[in-house]
Amino acid sequence: SFANVLLCKEEVAAIEVDASQELSVSKLLERANRDRTPDVDEPSLIGGDIALKPEAERNADPCTSRGCLWLKYTDGKVYIPYYIANHYSYREREIIVRGLESFSAVSCIRFRPYQNGDHEWLSIESRNGCYSYVGRQGGAQTVSLSRQGCLYHGTVQHELLHALGFNHEQTRSDRDNHIRVHWDNIIDDMEYNFYKIDTLNQGTPYDYNSVMQYERYAFSKNNLPTMEPIPNSNVSFGQATQMSQNDITRLNRLYQC
Ligand SMILES: [Zn+2]
């Protein structure tokens, strides 16, 4: 009967949640940041979800020349204060805290709540899209985890890895040995998302399963691949739903955990 095909709102919501949890971090980020309209006080993004400081500020930034690592304490741990905006629901907050705490089990990184007197901290807020600055910036630095599409375990880990100093896998200096970029398929004026940079590879191999690797059709203007693996173009990549072992190894080496 007619009544049988009607789903209540909660059931529809549950189905949507299930479908999203199977999506890769790359897909989730692209979906959340598609058609993003930033507020006037928000940064522009590069690479899909990396926040950029205004150029004047970038040039004066000592972090660029010194590296943007967070400081290690005498006990060998790296304590990083965070503040979570109060506009999140209890359930959303739990997803964020679970992401923050996932680093404790596998590294010397310890995210801890902001305390009076902290000079540098992550301000986790639901702004327009999912994004983070790369590395420690000084003062409060925004990590945006929008309530519309960013609250997944792997997405939280991805943005925190940016804040810890990591870039995208496809921009690695040795990228061309592992990924062929199809420049003709990239959305016009988005080619810069694929420019190689001096990444912190820490002696770890290129990792198709890194949570920092975007997928085959990222920033495609014509539904054709923007990236293909070399030499076997059928190998799957960019499908990670959480940090890989290489992501963890790299993190531990960077901070000498
Ligand atoms: Zn990213």
UniProtKB/TrEMBL annotation:
A Pfam family assignment: Astacin
Sequence positions that bind Zn(2+): 158, 162, 168
An example molecular function term from Gene Ontology annotations: metalloendopeptidase activity
EC number: 3.4.24.-
Stored SMART domains: ZnMc (SM00235)
PROSITE patterns: ASTACIN
Domain called Peptidase M12A: residue spans: 59-257
Cofactor(s) demanded: Zn(2+)
Biological processes per GO annotation: proteolysis
First-listed, main subcellular location of the protein, grouped into a coarse class: other
Keyword set, alphabetical order: Cytoplasmic vesicle, Disulfide bond, Glycoprotein, Hydrolase, Metal-binding, Metalloprotease, Protease, Signal, Zinc, Zymogen
Active site: 159
Cofactor notes: Binds 1 zinc ion per subunit.
UniProt subcellular location: Zymogen granule
Gene Ontology cellular-component terms listed: zymogen granule
The protein, known as: Metalloendopeptidase
Organism: Cyprinodon variegatus
